[in-house]
Fold this protein.
Amino acid sequence: MIVSANQPYFSPFPGFFSKAYHSDTLIVLDDVQFPQGTTWISRNRFKNDHGTFWMTIPVWKKGLGLQPINQVRICYEGRWTRKHMESIKTAYGNAPYLSDHLRFIEDMFSGRFEKLIDLNMAIIRYLLQCLRIKTNLILLSELGIKGRSTALLIEICKAVGATTFLAQKQVAKFLDPEIFRENRITFRSFPYTPPVYPQLWGDFLANLSTFDLVFNCGPKAQGILLGNGSVHNSLHP
């Protein structure tokens, strides 16, 4: 079994889903500390006529100290939900497939999600469905495992019976392959190349939210993602 792990990003970039596709199981690291600074867990980039723009989900932090990701609550003060919805419609109004996803986007900003993890997981599952990727998702909190860095990943592999751990090459340099070998787990990394696809608003910009790919390319999104980011023949021990 090939296992990978990732924090629950907000509207993740295509590399998140490339890794998921090449894994039997993706462990969502929901029970680790929520970063105190800027983070992909609560924001991501989209594209409009001015270039990229950030979409951020406000969360409650003040006076709460260090929080695990799965306890962070969304702050619904202000008009940001309406502004985000308007930004999507303005930026992607001419995208060929926006209308196919408007109902879900409206649900995203409906205010029904109390916690950030619930919003992010709804988005991740939706985009997996759009990309026809059937990878199994398991929350770290469901495994009851604590730890840090490589040691945590080893315990995850043991808990789910994984024989191989998969990581993007850019992240692999922060892990210790020797510890995986000592625990009889194969460590593999792969170089991820962002897919290039038709985009609105001028020159192509890589690594935006996967919604940009889906809005612009619809049913062709999976083929574009895997055709440019395939790792079938580029796994490295």
The chain has one domain: 2-229. The radius of gyration is 18 Å. DSSP finds ten helices and seven strands in the chain. The chain has a mean pLDDT of 93.
